[in-house]
Amino acid sequence: MTKTELQAIESRMTEEEIMNRARTLRPVGKLKDKGGKRFWLQADRIATETYLWDPKPLCPTGILKVLGSVTTYHRYCHPLLFKPSVDECIYQCPYPEATAFLIVYDGVIDKGLERHVATTVYFSGDIPQEIANRKIKW
């Protein structure tokens, strides 16, 4: 991935398009304190906050179908501070039918891109009403 390619990916959606997609593509996480089960995570601010530092589980995901895994790139601020945001996973999602995503981070940094590198798994499946109706902000 080059900086030019990444910039093209980042600019292919407007803020409004990202906000609209955020209503139908939500983060999930596997939580150790919940027995490793997958939960929908609270992520109400999709661009200005990370949802992984203090993950707040909302409800179990139920059955989700894996669509695929892709390498995703996330804003860099410090080698030890991985702060992915929902908007990054939205504009890098190649699956229009995806309804959920889960980030797997291995501590890799692309110094040329000045980004953290992760693998993001995208899923399809039903989003519960309580998740779909949550208000989101940029």
Characterise this structure:
The chain has about 140 residues and is an alpha+beta fold. It has one domain. About 20% of the residues lie in helices and about 35% in strands. It is built from four helices and six strands, in the order ααββββαββα. A six-stranded mixed β-sheet has the order 3-2-1-5-6-4. Strand 5 and strand 6 form a beta hairpin. The longest helix is centred in the N-terminal third of the chain and has 8 residues, at about 5-10. The two termini are about 25 Å apart. About 25% of the residues are buried. The mean pLDDT is about 95.
Gyration radius, in Å: 14 Å
Helices and strands, in order, run as: HHEEEEHEEH
The main pleated sheet reads as: 6 strands, mixed
Structural class: alpha+beta
Widest beta sheet: strand line-up: 3-2-1-5-6-4
User: Kindly state the mean pLDDT as a whole number?
Assistant: 94
The total strand number stands at 6
Number of domains: 1
Shape: globular
Strand coverage percent: 25-35%
| CA distance, first residue to last residue | 26 Å
- Bin the helical content: 10-25%
Task: Show unreliable segments.
Answer: none
Number of helices: 4
